[in-house]
Amino acid sequence: MIGIAVRDVVHYRRETVGVVAQVAVGIALFVIALSFVAAIGQNADRLLFGTVGAPWLVQPATRDDVLSVDAHEMSDIAAAVGATSVHSRLDLSANLESPSASPDRPASASVTLVGADLAAERTLAENFGLPPEPLGADRIVLTDTVARQLGVASGDVLVISIGAARLTYTVDAVVTASTPSFTLESWVLVDRESLARKLFGDADRANELLIDAPQTSTVRSEIDAATAGLGCATTLSLWSDTMWSSLMLGPAIWGVVLVAASTFAFLIICIGLTSLVYSALLARVADIAVLKTAGARSSALGRMYLTEVVAQYVIGYVVGGILAAVLIAGANAVGFTSTDQAFTFVVGATTLSFAPTWWAFLAPLGIGFVLTVAVLWFPIRSLCRYPVLDLLEIR
User: Fold this and answer.
1) What CA–CA distance (Å, rounded) separates 166 from 188?
2) Which own/partner pairs from 313-318 qualify as long-range (CB within 8 Å, at least 24 positions apart)?
3) Does residue 177 sit in helix, strand or coil?
4) Residue 48: what pLDDT?
């Protein structure tokens, strides 16, 4: 019966082409949609480590306090909580002045001064297109928004005011974040150790401790215990409990809408496929009658026609998967890029990309296969059980 089913697939070419084409289009659309959702998830990870720095954030309980934590202590904290990494930052509100500002530009701007160790925070460096190595002691990196506001460029000298302290820096680079967010627009980057020496006379000073560890209540307790001896009272926050969680809200909403729409469209295609296959089956009741007259059992006939459906679906899946892979590879190769706010709101990055993960291909296969077989099994079995004379009357 399997041989007959395979020959039928080849013989009834028009029916097969229609089914395969319908399945292929549905599979391709679904895979592309899920690959885009997977890319949104990757962008969320890049945003997390390219801005916040880690899931767990330890800060002094008051804004006037600073932590004192050296590399050995951070290593001990990482070992105590099972963290992948622990690193520190200085995150300060500051005023940035341009001594050579032109009359048509403001002489100063309020910025967020971030002292970071780029050698330890490779994703942060990658997000700003910087090499993963320490910045020079008197070098500063500006976002393009801050640079445009002040009208400055690489090589210009700037003065940063932090309370009573006034520090002089030279612009090392003007950068645009590849995973943008509204919080990054006011960022300026300097080397943390150099900034800590200038402000506190101690390179180990920081006001943020970033811990990359599992987001569980057990880990929270372990972090509280491990950071209890840092010299001042601290607060522990999970990044999803802070304002950072809103940064990927737009892409997350778009991803949900896209999955819902593509899933609905795929279900409609599957239902239409079952109608197409069942209509074709009704046109072949004479074949069923002949096979039953020749001694074929109803159960064997049911399995034969179900095998035809499965074969057509598998062929359509393969064609759709190849089509989706080609389109995704083409889109990723072209690399559609834009800094438009609407574009970055939807994509979560300045470059449109797709991440064709295994589940993006497996999900439509499972959903479509189960739905098609479940819907068609009962009418196929019922039709194959009809007496020969009844089948001839249907014809």
Assistant:
1) 15
2) 313/19, 313/23, 313/273, 313/368, 313/369, 313/372, 315/16, 315/20, 315/23, 316/19, 316/20, 316/21, 316/22, 316/23, 316/24, 316/27, 317/23, 317/24, 317/27, 317/364, 317/365, 317/368, 317/369
3) coil
4) 56
Burial 168-187, CB ≥16 within 10 A → b, else e: ebebbbbbebbbbbebbebb
**Model confidence over 286-302: pLDDT tens digits?**
666 777 777 767 777 77
Q: CA separation (Å) from 164 to 160, 161, 191, 208, 353? A: 10, 7, 20, 22, 46
In angstroms, the Cα distances linking 246 to 56, 306, 347, 353, 393 are 16, 48, 14, 21, 65
Amino acid of residue 210: L
pTM of the entire predicted model: 0.59
Q: How far apart are CA 6 and CA 311, in angstroms?
A: 8
Please enumerate in sequence order all residues whose Cβ is within 8 A of that of 55, keeping only pairs 6 or more positions apart, or say none: 48, 211, 212, 213, 215, 238, 239, 240
